Amino acid sequence: MRTLGLCLLATLSLGACTTGISNSMLTSHANKMITQYPIERALINIYSKPSNYTSYLVDDQLQLAVQVVTLPLGTVTFDGKPVHASRITSTIYIDNHNVNTSIEDNYYSFDPLVFHGFSGAERYSITSQTQSVPKVATVGDFSTFLTENVYTDSSLNKKIGTYLKAWSLSKATNNSAWLCISRSANILVATDAGTPVDCYVINPHGKVLDNRVEYTYPTDKGLRQDVYVKR
User: Fold this and answer.
1) Closest of 219, 164, 165 to residue 187, by C-alpha
2) Phi and psi, residue 6, nearest 5°
3) Is the pTM of this model over 0.90?
4) Residue 15 DSSP class
5) Beta partners for residue 176, in sequence order
6) Is the torsion defined by CA of 139, 140, 141, 142 positive or negative?
7) Pairing label, strands 114-120, 137-138
8) What is the DSSP string of 58-89?
9) DSSP for residue 49
């Protein structure tokens, strides 16, 4: 599942179903705070639906932008089994010049939503889903939900990283919420280049309304956080 950050240029990378939230709830409580949101539906929209968006670093002096394009690939074979896949192409621009493009294929299955891994240039991940993705969660909820074991290629001979993924849900407005997907530092090494958090504003139907990326990494002056937002 995708990651993003200035210091990790080469590692840039994660329908109509029942959501458990009725239309009557949305209309009759329009002026009240909605506290429950469909996490599984939102993640399906994020990782498996076609999209194309560009985020910009808040620090305008760097003039840094990242374009992320998601393209569904249909059914493919991964780790010996049929799964669904989507291709995520991430491109970094500095002063409107393309300085890096990375392509990553993500693999998952539906009903229930399960992530199986990803593949890219010199990276191949086998994912273990440690917790199921909830159909519906309440603002304030959070949980780890998978472990990524990353190798140099599909032979699995050289392991280069182990990461934990977690989701969290927090209030955005009375009828929207921030769904954030965080990735831990590399468990295999004492230090890591940084940790990304992908955040999406979702509505009570799981539709993505907005997004931002927060990337925290160490510098000689301590930790720095870069924030990328849509304009």
Assistant:
1) 164
2) -60, -35
3) no
4) -
5) 173
6) positive
7) unpaired
8) S-GGG-EEEEEEEEEEEEEEETTEEEEEEEEE
9) S
